Amino acid sequence: MLSGGRLAAAALLPAVAVFFSGTAWALDGAAVEKLALGEGDERIAAISALVSEGDPKAVDVLKALAEGEMQTSGRRVLIVRGGKAMDAVTGEAVAPVPADSEDVVANNRLRAAVGDALALLRLLSPVRAERLASAKTLAGGADAATLPLVQRALAQESDAEIRALLEIIAASMQLKSESRDARLAAIRTLGRSSSASSKTLLLELANDADPDIRREAHMSLDAVEKRLALGEWLGLAFAGISLASILLLAALGLAITYGLMGVINMAHGELIMIGAYTTYVVQNLFRGSAFDWYLAAAVPAAFVVSGLVGMALERTVIRWLYGRPLETLLATWGISLILIQAVRTLFGAQNVQVENPAFMSGGLQVLSNLVLPWSRIYIVAFVALVLAGMWILLGKTRLGLFIRGVTQNRAMASCVGVPTARVDTWAFGLGSAIAGLAGCALSQLGNVGPDLGQGYIVDSFLVVVFGGVGHLAGTAYAALVLGFANKALESWSGAVLAKIAVLVFIIFFIQRRPQGLFALRGRAVDT
Amino acid sequence: MKRRALVKAIALAVASISLGSTAFAQQKTIKVGVLHSLSGTMAISETVLKDTVLMAIEEVNAGGGVMGMKIEPVVVDPASNWPLFAEKARQLITQDKVAVVFGCWTSVSRKSVLPVFEELNGLLFYPVQYEGEEISKNVFYTGAAPNQQAIPAVEYLMSKEGGGAKRWFLLGTDYVYPRTTNKILRAFLHSKGVTDKDIEEIYTPFGHNDYQTIVANIKKFAASGRTAVVSTINGDSNVPFYKELGNQGLKATDVPVVAFSVGEEELRGVDTKPLVGHLAAWNYFMSIKAPANDEFIKKWTAYAKAKNIPGHKDKPLTNDPMEATYIGVHMWKQAVEKAKSFDVDKVTAAMAGQTFKAPSGITSKMDEKNHHLHKAVFIGEVKADGQFNVVWKTKGPIKAQPWSPFIPGNDKKKDEPALMAAKKP
């Protein structure tokens, strides 16, 4: 961000005046040529030369460079947009696009310099959003030579948010000022900042020769670090919630099939995988039109497909094995292998791509150093909905009543006329369907491949066993505890050790408390 | 007794039919092995290498084969399972009697098959950049050694043009390649005056898919000075990593990420718009403008269409390990023809000094002694369309240094394979 500033800035002041008065000058051909064909510093100098002309066309040329729309044909510089070429210097159309034209490569340094130059030009723009965006760009660390311009912008600015940003930008430029008082004032101003780049600047001053400056720098640094730490803590908490939501979603289905029904379903992961592949298929159907809406169809589709597969499994295999856990374990494990191989044959062994709809990419900027990805926010909300839905289904509906009745006392339920066999099928189908929902959600975060389920089966069992078998609320609490523990350990000891530590913790916990976090007391199964 | 004899007879008959169909139908074939993961976490990278070998073989066969013999590929799937690599390698050499094997991606898989190749005196062509610290007389390394990829990349990021990074976040998958590379890089950074407090080293397990905390840690680390991230993440973990980078808004102009195992193929399926400007260092990019590359891409496009290769039939992509694989198959053919034999020792001797016009635009040469290719180094920035802009390159090919001078004790090691392997008891 700091690369191009100095050279550009020297030329900027007169430029900005001209820029907004709207006088159109011809572009400097030599500068454009240098920009396109020069090397390193030469190109940075060309940016400032172009900006100093103050021609709106210069802005256009710079934008074209940053966005990779600039090409050269011999020594002629072209801007190529949507298959149409235009001479960058004269602005006249060039048709057809010359065959020998080559892309002009812009590297990070050049893009940053162009970004800063454009931001400086827009700092006096009448549109608030443009000024705010400019201020945010420059807050990343603009060069001190642009100080007069920033001060002028500050004098004109009335918006509080932009003012605050500009003050910090101005202060960070004055840190190396000649006057000691100005430096001290700047350091104090920076203490109000909450951005990481201010910390970088203050750190440099923390070893200054002047004791007063050192002291002030340390004080400001503490203040900034406190604000940054808040962002870091919130980020960690969100990471914990996000992981917990994923664990919970993966384990919820198992909480029914294993927790309530007692079926050790090793194919649970594959039901998740089927949900993810259903999402993939639905996504492909939506390609071309209304792509952003494919999830609206994928969620119910994943629910239904996984649910049907689960019901078919129950009808054909699992129902013959109730009460024989070892056989169930082996049979479902075999089924999981069959399902993996089936998907491999159908879709190939390689991962398939599930793209996020537009509203799920990017993130929400909460603090200067905290951006929460939309995809994770949506998934946390989705899990909350699924959990609520399941609670209502099991607690408030007739089917839920039957399921609870059958799991508590099969013989008695049968005596009062509950069709236990059919209820088993429905319950298993429900658990499987929720696994399908998990697959749909997971496809938005990670990879979708035939082995997808294998990565979650162990975690799912851990959550259910840790929470207490047969206890839905326990599953939710266990997911939260494991999610937070994993993330807290990960930030402290790294991902590999965190995983080991969590496993060791659970082993000891289960040794001490085999019934899990929440024990079933007597017959009272409270779901 | 009688029944057993009958079963035996049937089994024999079936076996001879299945063997015969290959042995008799095309007379005079020579088998070569293809040992790449077609499933599991590495399938994202390795599957396409299998197809590249098959394409190169088809090309050689179309040109009359090797010494008048058609090449018959034997494809096996070691499924990203390291011990299985060794098993499959043994099967290829002892049962299928292949003349040569093209395969492996991760160093852990190469380390796993190495004893097998040395014991049975097989021949392996390894097409991926790796950490060095190894020269085997049974292996030809057509990918880059650290001085042909990692070190130039870090030097670039230190330079003014590359952003002048002062702090380094070394992020990798937890196995031998990232650990050794980072050991070399740490020593290299020390030699440039970077202190340990400005270097952070983080590892994740294979298949890791939650990069929230790591990206947050990168942000935190970057607050204390100009930072660059060096990623040696391998396999499909790269997809969630780059998604998280994009979603958390970490821009390349603030914190550039340079990757050593991410190419055009790994970025397929990732929205690359937020990733513009992040870097990769390789010895080949699809975007390189060279006649040999145009031809290579054309061949691959046609092959992918003809064979209906998923993904590539609609959007053909080429990458560095594919190029290295392609060079490997052709160099092996040239060496066999020079040696006039498929014998491993004779072919090995003939490999020294072999040259091939590489798609990257240079003439690649196999070093006379150290079994590594001389390669040019390119550094590319990700473009919005998932391709790479070459922003820096070496003037010409560089000789590989498998024994990095940045690891103590390596100055005494010889830059050629030891001869003891052949005389093992």
Number of helices of chain B: 12
Strand/helix succession of chain B: HEHEHEHEEHEHEHEHEHEHHHEEEEE
Number of strands of chain A: 7
Radius of gyration based on Cα positions of chain A: 31 Å
As residue ranges, the low-confidence spans of chain A are 1-11, 17-25, 522-527
Please outline what is shown here.
Chain A has helices at 5-21, 29-37, 40-53, 56-66, 108-122, 128-139, 147-156, 160-174, 180-190, 196-205, 211-260, 268-285, 294-316, 325-347, 374-396, 398-408, 410-415, 420-442, 454-467, 472-493, 495-512; strands at residues 70-73, 76-81, 84-87, 93-94, 102-103, 363-367, 370-373. Chain A has 527 residues and is mainly α.
Question: Which key phrases capture this entry?
Answer:
heterodimer, A: 527 residues, mainly alpha, two-stranded antiparallel ribbon, elongated, disordered C terminus, B: 425 residues, alpha/beta, 7-stranded mixed sheet, 5-stranded parallel sheet, 12 helices, 15 strands, 16% strand, globular
Question: What features would you describe in this structure?
Answer:
In chain A, α1 packs parallel to α5, α4 packs antiparallel against α5 and α8 (160-174) crosses α9 (180-190). Chain A has helices spanning 5-21, 29-37, 40-53, 56-66, 108-122, 128-139, 147-156, 160-174, 180-190, 196-205, 211-260, 268-285, 294-316, 325-347, 374-396, 398-408, 410-415, 420-442, 454-467, 472-493, 495-512; strands spanning 70-73, 76-81, 84-87, 93-94, 102-103, 363-367, 370-373. Chain A is elongated, with a radius of gyration of 31 Å. Among the domains of chain A are: 6-177, no CATH class; 261-359 and 397-455, no CATH class. The model of chain A is unreliable at 1-11, 17-25 and 522-527 (pLDDT under 50). In chain A, a hairpin with a 2-residue loop joins β6 (363-367) and β7. Chain A has 527 residues and is mainly alpha-helical. In chain A, 50% of the residues are buried. The longest helix of chain A is centred in the middle third of the chain and has 50 residues, at 211-260. Chain B is of the alpha/beta class and 425 residues long. Chain B is built from 12 helices and 15 strands. Chain B has helices at 2-23, 43-62, 82-95, 107-120, 150-158, 176-191, 212-222, 238-247, 264-267, 291-307, 320-339, 344-351; strands at 29-35, 70-76, 101-103, 124-126, 139-141, 167-173, 199-204, 227-232, 257-259, 279-282, 355-357, 363-366, 373-374, 378-382, 388-393. In chain B, the strands form 3 sheets. Chain B has a 7-stranded mixed sheet, sandwiched between helices.
